[in-house]
Amino acid sequence: MSYFVPGQERAHRVSELFASIATRYDLINDIQSFGLHRWWKHRLVQLAPVGRDCQALDVCCGTGDLTLALASREFETTGIDFSEPMLSVARRRGARRKEKRRPRFVQGDALQLPFASDSFDLVTVAYGLRNLADVDAGLRELTRVLRPGGTLLILEFGKPASALLRWLWFTYLRLALPVYGFLFAGDAKAYAYILESLLHYPGQTVIQLKLAELGATDGKMFDILGGMMSMHAVRKGAY
Predict the structure, then answer these.
(1) What's the gap between Cα 137 and its chain centre?
(2) Rounded mean pLDDT of the chain?
(3) What does the pLDDT read at residue 35?
(4) What is the maximum alpha-carbon separation in the chain?
(5) Were both Cys, which of 6, 49, 79, 115 would link to 61 (CB 3.0–4.6 Å)?
(6) Which range has highest mean pLDDT (6-20, 90-104, 152-166)?
(7) Which string of b and e fits 15-48 if b means at least 16 CB within 10 Å?
(8) What is the rounded end-to-end Cα distance, in angstroms, of the chain?
(9) At residue 7, does pLDDT exceed 80?
(10) Could you state, in order of their start, the residue ranges of all structural domains in the chain?
(11) What is the pLDDT of residues 90-122, one digit of tens each?
């Protein structure tokens, strides 16, 4: 059974996937990225604006890595994800933190965020945009809840511009990820989903153009490892 399906069924299938790997999600990420995903998230947080009263929203927060990192900067932070098993892990991790400002975690749909427009100074999403059934609708929601002048930060798998590097990258994902899925989740297709979703993802250059079309300003795109990963940092323009 493939976890990637088009249309409305995709959200249900992806939810099943993350429910099945929630308790091993961080371990598998450490193994498949050689721990580098933690450094990339750290770099993303460094792009966040400075301010203790910052209202931050981490969308598709998963087990809460990025949400907790934002809370450590004394931001008022909310993490949202549609997978309750993933949120259960995030809440347990949050409860162990000693910081005064602990994040809150809520269940919700990234395509219909349960927040008023212009609610947050900072919105982040790490490795979640690619999973949305409608990337365009997801970008509209991310910018809708962001206040004018607020910052949107995105970390995601990328598509290298170099044809050779792209071939090497996709070949690695095609061969290695089913092995990780089988060894650590008992399902070879569980992590093969990453490549399937990436093949249907428009890639970082197109995402940057879409953000500009939505009125984002001061747009910056950072390719990591030759474009195998990417970061976006933009501000929402004033009305």
Answers:
(1) 15
(2) 87
(3) 81
(4) 51
(5) 79
(6) 152-166
(7) bebbebbbebbbebbeebeeeebeebbeebbebb
(8) 46
(9) no
(10) 9-160+202-236
(11) 999 988 877 677 899 999 999 999 999 999 999
CB 110, CB 59: distance < 8 Å: yes
**What is the strand order of the sheet 55-59 is part of?**
104-107, 76-81, 55-59, 120-126, 146-157, 229-236, 216-224
Quick one: residue 148, left, alpha or beta (phi over 0 = left, psi -120 to 50 = alpha)? beta
In the block, residue with structure tokens 């990453």: 194
Cα separation, 208 vs 219, in Å, equals 7
CATH superfamily of 9-160+202-236: Vaccinia Virus protein VP39 (3.40.50.150)
Check: CB of residue 146 under 8 Å from CB of residue 152: yes
Instruction: Identify the H or E element spanning 157.
Output: strand 146-157
| 83 SS3 class | coil
CA–CA separation, 44 vs 46, rounded Å?
A: 5
Count Cα neighbours of 14 within 13 Å in the Cβ-side half-sphere.
24
Range with lowest mean pLDDT among 184-188, 195-199, 209-213: 184-188
Which residues are registered as beta bridge partners of 112? 109
* Residue 12 burial (CB count, 10 A): 12
The better pLDDT of the pair 139, 196 is held by 139
